[in-house]
Specification:
Distance between the termini: 26 Å
Number of strands: 2
Shape: globular
Structural class: alpha+beta
Helix content: 40-55%
């Protein structure tokens, strides 16, 4: 468990999809751009919206 509600996870996944970092297909998360995904963990990626 990560302690996040469904709405927060949905928003985070949407932001990562929009950035091109990942894609969700058939209930699997596919990393499309590892550098963008790394950047999302290192800075204010989610606060820029």
């Amino acid at each position: 468990m990560i302690g996040a509600n469904r709405e927060a996870v949905t928003r985070a996944l949407a932001r990562l999809r929009e950035s091109g970092a990942l894609n969700v297909r058939r209930r699997y998360i596919h990393v499309e751009d590892i550098e963008t995904l790394k950047r999302a963990t290192e800075d204010d990626f989610f606060r820029e919206a």
